[in-house]
Predict the 3D structure of the following.
Amino acid sequence: MGDIVIIGGGFAGLEAARVFSRKRSKLGSRRVIVVDAKPTFDFLPVLPDVCGSFVSKEHVILDLREYLEALKVNFENDEVINIDADAREVFLKGGRSLAFEFLIVCCGSVTNFYGAAEIERHALKLDTADDAAALLNTVATYPQKKIVIAGGGYTGVEIASSIAAFLRRKKVKKYSVNIVEKQDDILGPLPQWAKDYCRINLAALRVNIYADSSIKEVTENRVKLSSGMEFDDYLFIWAAGVQTPKFLRDLKFEKDTQGRLVVDNYLRFSEGCFAAGDAACFKSKGKALRMAVQFSLAQADVAAGNILRIIAGKKGLIKYRPCDLGLLVPMANRKACGKILFFRVWGIFGWALHYIMCVYRSIGAKNKFGILRDCLLRFFR
Ligand SMILES: Cc1cc2nc3c(=O)[nH]c(=O)nc-3n(C[C@H](O)[C@H](O)[C@H](O)COP(=O)(O)OP(=O)(O)OC[C@H]3O[C@@H](n4cnc5c(N)ncnc54)[C@H](O)[C@@H]3O)c2cc1C
């Protein structure tokens, strides 16, 4: 009898840990071990709000050791550098290794610089709460108040709106916030009405959009676009794509272009090894599911449930059947748009819905009340 190792203490990893904690009596003498490179769980959906100083950093982080201790789950604060699925071992950067009987890979995703070392050297990114605090501090202290954001997806749009709203609140008269997008419009898969809504909203915040343009060259103080346009003395933020962490991309299992592990209907990528959340590529109607909290939580429930079934010797595993509740793109001037179930949602109602969801999904009373308080304060700012 071996241990159950969960790689990553994010949305999926903590959900799996909660399932095992509730069913502790069914685990026999098996230990549950969560391994995470960070000591904290960072609540990613509100990181753009931290960049705009609308939500405080302390309300988006949770101490993993303390939280997992309460669940009676073990915690290893170390980075996973390799997995040997045949030998059933996970290797840690610190030099140790963990043997496992069952594994759930929930290591999420990180910014993808597409191998461009110059861009990685000069750009700010948004993967963690520390990144968000660094971004806020840099914008606040950068005298020129001129910013270029590469990537007009959800993250790029949310960062741009947060920074622009922050600068307005600070009564900065002359600022320049710009989104550069390779495609011919921002927010790729969203319906046209939502893209138009976001464009109007971003224009109201004085955010410029350069579509059909890519980043050609980045130096310490210059960003050059494919169109020939140049931005001198601008802060540069890269939000143009994500991929899974390197150790996962290096594994010899089938992966998609973002390095997500291709999983079967039961979320397995190998015998006794499961993946959930951003690290898993689950295809629904021939298309990989997008990366979102709702799928991470539901997949973690199925992966953990299947491990419990195998331990109990039950016949057959649970199939993962994705249920998409919809998505919202929130912007810092109390507007949002998107689709919830079959309904179009926009304006302040959509914005409120997004933060109600964030409060509901954040962990611990301190963070729930903190995010709620920060959001309510925004009504009066
Ligand atoms: C800025 C931003 C805004 C977002 N907004 C929304 C939103 O509004 N709604 C929505 O549904 N989704 C949103 N998302 C996406 C959503 O946050 C992800 O889909 C979700 O976090 C995925 O959960 P996960 O458990 O797979 O990974 P994560 O929650 O990212 O957790 C992964 C964990 O694995 C750890 N890890 C990584 N590599 C290693 C390693 N080698 N060794 C040990 N530990 C490791 C990390 O430290 C991290 O704690 C947003 C994402 C970002 C970045």
In short: DSSP finds eleven helices and 27 strands in the chain. The chain has two domains: 4-37+78-109+244-312, 117-242+326-379. The first helix runs from residue 11 to 22.
